[in-house]
TrEMBL record:
Residues 32-58 form the Heavy metal binding domain. Residues 1-23 form the signal peptide. Belongs to the membrane fusion protein (MFP) (TC 8.A.1) family. It comes from the Bacteria. Residues 323-378 form the Multidrug resistance protein MdtA-like C-terminal permuted SH3 domain. This is Efflux RND transporter periplasmic adaptor subunit. Gene3D superfamilies: 2.40.30.170, 2.40.420.20, 2.40.50.100, 6.10.140.730. The keyword Signal applies. Residues 110-233 form the CusB-like barrel-sandwich hybrid domain. One of its GO terms (biological process) is copper ion export.
Length: 399
């Protein structure tokens, strides 16, 4: 009996000793070690940063912080100038400003083409950007077909002069030969000179049928052109298009009959009034972006295609939640805001944004009326979150 009692007492002493040794090993799970230069480093024990080799700093986790939240002290809030405001339902709209680019009015592009096949012997305008007035000598062409037609016309005129009393109506033959020359691009003055001198030259000059600036030169001297082949593209730059991109969600807010004002950043103070005259009927499925076009006059050709511009459109006001633009943090993952969930506690939330107007931005989803949102210091909160938790608060979040 004594032997059994001794064994039981020994076992109890061993168990107590083991329990005592476990209790002697403190383990603080609320502390981790990070680097002030590389906050993504998070270690469970002290040491040096594997990136910059600085001593790691102990940081205590706050049990009150949520997964996507952060807690700040009163001093941090004051130093970071973190201010909040309660989001309310209000109106946003009245006008919308879009980024745009000035482009050539494609409805005012004229193509000067060869009326007959031949070889370009000489070009009188050889540079993109040269301005050509209607009637200017454009190029000289050598054409066997045209030269044969010239000889035919001279021959008919000679026979008409000598055999005018015959039964053959040379007047109609002469008119038919002349019409062929007109069809192949010769003008009345050239034909009259040919009929007067009864001599022709191998090269025929052709003149521009329109005024404009050269945007495309399709031939060079020595090239052969076919009948109808393009020689030069001329653009009338007295009118330009201001083409702006607009998101599909904003289309319903645009007044198609409203006024538009185009501003040119390269010309401060210059504003040009116009109206929307085209909206692309097809929306890009990848970007969800549509194109609208405003036609504007180009007085004295001061504006150049390719210039950046801003298009301000009158839009209809509507009720919506809105915040100051600086309250919203935007990157490739989307948009988010910081919401106060307690006295000094803040939580990051993804939001869907809409219209921007007058330094305000529409919040379409992600918040509700009455939420207290950080309107100043949101980026500082973001940085503090990354420092403490070593991750972007928007990483892995979904709307």
């Amino acid at each position: 009996m004594k032997k059994i009692l001794f064994i039981v007492i020994s076992a109890l002493l061993v168990f107590a000793a083991c329990k005592s040794r476990k209790a002697d090993v403190p383990k603080d799970t609320d502390v981790f070690y990070t680097c002030s230069m590389d906050p993504q480093i998070m270690e469970s024990k002290p040491g040096k940063c594997p990136i910059c080799h600085m001593e790691l700093t102990a940081v205590k986790k706050s049990n009150s912080e949520e997964m996507d939240g952060i807690q700040l002290s009163e001093q941090q809030i004051q130093l970071g100038n973190i201010r909040t405001d309660t989001i309310k339902d209000g109106t946003i709209g009245d006008q919308m400003t879009l980024s745009a680019t000035l482009n050539i009015d494609e409805s005012k592009i004229n193509i000067v083409s060869a009326r007959v096949a031949g070889r370009i012997d000489k070009l009188y305008y050889k540079n993109i950007g040269d301005h050509i007035t209607k009637g200017s000598r454009l190029f000289d062409l050598y054409s066997e077909e045209l030269n044969n037609a010239k000889q035919e016309y001279i021959s008919v005129l000679e026979r008409q002069r000598t055999l005018d009393n015959s039964i053959i109506d040379f007047t109609q033959l002469a008119q038919a030969a002349k019409n062929k020359l007109l069809l192949w691009g010769m003008n009345e003055a050239q034909i009259t000179e040919l009929a007067t001198t009864k001599k022709y030259v191998a090269l025929t000059s052709f003149y521009s049928t329109a005024s404009g600036t050269i945007t495309t030169l399709d031939v060079k001297e020595g090239d052969y052109v076919t009948e109808g082949g393009s020689v030069v593209h001329l653009a009338d730059l007295s009118v330009l298009w201001a083409e702006a991109q607009v998101y599909a969600s904003q289309l319903s807010l645009i007044d198609q009959k409203g006024d538009a004002v185009v501003q040119i950043p390269d010309m401060p103070g210059k504003e040009i009034k116009g109206r929307i005259d085209f909206e692309n009927p097809e929306i890009s499925p990848d970007t969800r972006i549509n194109l609208i076009r405003v036609t504007i006059p180009n007085y004295n050709n001061q504006l150049k295609p390719g210039m950046p511009a801003y298009v301000t459109l009158k839009s209809r006001q509507h009720h919506s939640l809105s915040l100051p633009v600086d309250a919203v943090i935007r990157d490739a993952k989307g948009a988010s805001v910081w919401v106060r969930t307690g006295k000094n506690n803040f939580e990051n939330r993804m939001v869907e944004t809409g219209l921007e107007a007058d330094e305000s931005i529409e919040i379409k989803s992600g918040l509700q009326e009455g939420d207290i949102v950080v309107i100043s210091g949101a980026y500082l909160l973001n940085s503090e979150y990354i420092f403490k938790k070593g991750a972007d608060p928007m990483a892995g979040m979904k709307m």
